[in-house]
Design brief:
homotrimer, about 240 residues, alpha/beta, Rossmann fold, six-stranded parallel sheet, two-stranded antiparallel sheet, globular, AB_hydrolase_fold (chains A, B, C), AB_hydrolase_1 (chains A, B, C), Sec-Metab_Biosynth_Hydrolase (chains A, B, C), hydrolase (chains A, B, C), hydrolase activity (chains A, B, C)
Chain lengths: ~240, ~240, ~240
């Protein structure tokens, strides 16, 4: 299969390195671009349109077809925008513990109030947010040892917040007939379970989807990339 | 142990073949009748009374005792009716991702509205429902590869709908003292998780039960019969 | 790491024997005292203050520091009381399918009404409760075979009820900055899932926590102590 992997907030294409290696070793093709606004492409003013356009451009310029488009976390919203632009090039869209945004909503619509306050308080004057290590280690890397958490944290960079507050036109997404999957790693504890859930909270907004569940947390690309690759195969196969 | 396995909608006794083989290899005895109305016994007008009677007759005619009675999906309702007729012959009733019907309710009472509409639209004039492959593959076989899904689909046949709309007298079931178990395969995504759950939705109507959870979906008899047999052993043991 | 393990109701320090062995074999240190009121220290009139004091005394008298304090079930409430008395000696508090009591509440605040009635009916005149085997086997040992359930049951003793009705002053606990984890064994079916949950029900009262989930039920110290020890390592590590 041919994967295009869209990373989440605070990350860049490098987060997928071990997952790409595992997928490639299993005979698949995988592309993992850095989104504009992240990593080397830092830009606090980046928009969702620019972000999605970069993935569309990758797919079109390389003439990729039969793509399994994977969105992780924030990348789920990007995957929705990309899917409605190039549906004919997609075999399936896979959401891995990812946002699924309603038409007319924003990414921040779904951040629990108890966390939104903390995010606002931590935001830099330039409109970016740096994740505190303690939060990252306990909530995103809860399934990893400390050394892995530290290594993964070293690869993060400030996330531009503006695009997550943009109202998204997703009418096209909700009329797509592209098959979709929700890959749910059920140890994820990024947000309080009493206020938020990836599955069934986010997943149930999809028109239809195949559910695949696996153990693990929000950053399996670091804590267990082989398990993530296996999950992506089960989520992405016909 | 001695198992009597009651299949679900669209299926017949053959669905259990690999599970029976696994149970037999582990030293157990297993019976897997085709219910009247299904498979070779197709009959759109079949009633719940006739359906349950066939299982009771099997148990009585073979003089089976200490039976672990297993109901899967729709077969849960049948198991309830059978249990209240021959409780003294049962060691335990096991529900595997199965309906548990309240006294005076119907099977369709518990089908989420969002799915009931689709079922009605798809029903044949003769009162049967043929499951579309896409739904079967994504929702019932989400834990299987495509080849397994296609093989399992080839074994399905139209389900007579009338009996699932029958009001069931289950007062006797709710005064039984037979031990019960709920075997919950937690990757099951037959119905939207936001509207329906096997556990704790269905399970909590049982007077009391042992919970056993396993990975996998609605059709472990096809996707992983060895795991299902192991689950049935844990659910069925004293 | 250095563990102090606080057992739950009906049990005593012996319940941890195999877990202590597994932790010790992995290079850790583990202490598993019998709480006053339980086992050899039977005392129907024991108070929560006396119960917590015994653990505090153990920690102080042995001059233990960098302690991973583990509370199981009822032991969660004890761990909260201990933590607010000796926070500087703790590296982390771990709750394994354990109560987390709100400031000013009691343990019994969180027992579902459907179970509280049965508990009251079963209570002895001396103010203790002996757990019926059938309940223990089906609800606490649902993941074990019958022989293991019988062996574990033989190690139980009557639980003094009075302390579980005591209003607890836990204001100090809720201002602690000690890291905390919730180790959730997700096959636990002690109480009806429709009325009660360890996670996210209990866990969400913690100021913050690392979530670690593992298969298994309420008594992994008996049904799978090696898995419990591994879970405690993941929950307890920095």
């Amino acid at each position: 299969m041919r994967y295009v992997l869209i990373h989440g907030s605070w990350q860049d294409g490098r987060c997928w390195d071990a997952t790409v290696a595992a997928l490639t070793a299993a005979g698949h093709e995988a592309h993992a671009p850095t989104l504009p606004g992240n990593g080397d492409l830092a830009n606090p003013a980046v928009t969702m349109a620019e972000t999605a356009a970069a993935v569309v451009d990758l797919i079109v310029s390389k003439d990729l077809t039969e793509v399994v488009l994977v969105g992780h976390s924030f990348g789920g919203a990007v995957a929705q925008l990309v899917a409605q632009q190039v549906p004919d090039r997609l075999a399936r869209v896979v959401f891995y513990n990812a946002y699924v945004i309603a038409d007319g909503a924003t990414v921040f619509t779904y951040v629990p109030e108890s966390v939104a306050g903390a995010f606002t308080a931590l935001a830099s004057p330039d409109g970016t947010l740096t994740l505190p290590y303690a939060y990252f280690r306990e909530h995103l890397m809860n399934d990893a040892d400390a050394a892995t958490a530290e290594w993964a944290y070293a690869l993060t960079s400030p996330e531009p917040l503006g695009r997550s507050a943009e109202v998204l036109d997703l009418a096209g997404f909700y009329s797509l007939t592209v098959p979709m999957s929700y890959l749910y790693a059920y140890d994820d504890n990024v947000f309080p379970a009493s206020e938020f859930s990836w599955h069934p909270g986010m997943s149930q907004r999809l028109p239809d989807f195949r559910l695949v569940t696996i153990p693990g947390g929000h950053e399996l690309m670091f804590s267990d990339p082989a398990a993530l690759a296996a999950g992506l195969e089960r989520a992405g196969r016909p």
